[in-house]
Amino acid sequence: MNALILDAEARTANIKEIALPQPAADELLVKVESISLNPIDPLYVVHPLGKTGRTVGSDFAGHVVGIGSQVPESASLQRSDRVAGFLQGACSINERPGAFSEYLTIPWDLVWRIPDIVSSDEAAGVSLVALTAAQGIWYRMGLLAPFEYDREAVLKENLGWRQSDSSDGDEPGTINVLIYSASTSVGLYAAQMARLSAKASGKKIKLFGTASKIRWEFLKAEPYAYDHLVDYRDKDWPQQIKTMSEGAGMNYAYDGLSEGESVARVASTLADNGKMAIVRSREGGAWKASDLPIEPTYGAVWEGLGEEVQYEGFTVRKSPAAREFAVAFYKWLSKALSSELRPVPIRLMPGGLEKVVEDGFALLGAGGVGHRQVKREKHWMRPPSVDLCNPGATCPEEKDRTPTRYTPTFTARTIAATTRSRDSEDTSEILPVPTLWPSRSSSDTASPSSTGNAQSTTPITVGHPPITTSTNESHKPNSRPIPIPAISGSMGGIIALIALGVLLLLCRRRQQRKNIYQAPIYVSPYNTDSDMTPPINSFQQRKVQQSCSEVHQPGGREIRTGLGRRIGTLSLQRIAGLPAEAVDRWRS
User: Which GO MF term does the entry hold, naming one (predicted)?
Assistant: First the structure.
């Protein structure tokens, strides 16, 4: 099979043919249909931690083709079931294979089933960022989750805050929650999860967020429904947050970027005993801050895989509690995406695995937002942020180009997988959203850090080689409807063609009727009043019909062949059966 393999010395990745993996007793063999490219993927190719020969990549979606012998029957997994998940591809020192390949193996309980309403392209961009947001909102900060998991085990491993440690009890029924980088993919999921927590707990949540003003209209709509938004470019935005909260501050703050000054600024908005979660560690060097009112809770999304994660200089320990949470979250996710949780919209990129490095890595860069310097005219190579404008707005990032308007219904900053063939034209398409959901979009760009976390940034999904192309149209709920004018125009053309065909058929039948031989009426050469039209038998009639293409009507004097030549006396005598003397007299 083909896979995207790390070349640590050259700091790149290349497609190579490797052996088909064999699933362990508790694993599934999955045929990959779509992959999602997160900023963490190019980061650890350009700055490798893994060794040469390791398969890179994290997010995937596909279908089951093999089941290990110890996968329990209670899992109800069958071949051809559509599943999604993520692996830790080249993002740590641990030598575990990634997801950017035609086939992969994964523990059976670390995948979630894709609902029929969600395409494989959309599903590929869900797993890593959705679990990142769930970890931050639910088990790190302790907001009530809409599913059961072992909260005490999380607390014993010091992975999150105890609910009693927060000040939200001072105002029963009201909780102030801040999400920094609200319009990133993680931010979009975090907002929805905060709303679900309010529904589960019965408490009112006031949702505060940071984003560019051009995104505000989108973020204030359902399902995010932000109560207050500030522009992160404003130097005094933390003070604006405090003013909007009437001086109360934030009970919970989630920094979905955790880069530069963001951690210190977010921490400054906290109320007494407020809680804060971040997505990058201090050890990784993405942020440096001292004199924080609290020490934020940190954890890598890879904790959910239940394996130790090693970086240069520090280690994220193996966490059974984090794995148990991930398993419970995936069970809930399989149902929630049909009703409660809206996936982040996706942008398709053509080219399959061959274009991951050339286009996908170039688009995302290998560092912070400032590293994204690629400028190309292809619309799938637009900066991720240009898809995040309010409906009908022209994004400022496009000011140096011909203005192009985008609508959140059909665009978003997640770039999702396409299964086009290598030989297909150099085109790409934007997936429309399922009609079950309202229009949706996404948001500000966030950048990766050297800590190995991809949580704060939007996934980009890139198409898979033709061997993985799905031909099951039932798995494509997002097919764009055909406009009514296009349907009307097509029907009009079809009707016109049918009418033309009928007209040609009638003309041909009329011509055929004219070509039937009719014997001419001859004047009697013997000066009698009798009709001298000779009789003609059926055999002679068929002969004449075969040899004549045009015959004059009764009363005429000529018979013409298909070439327009006169039939001579002998021919007329042979056809009509007249005596030669009568013919000569008639002609004279």
Answer: oxidoreductase activity, acting on NAD(P)H
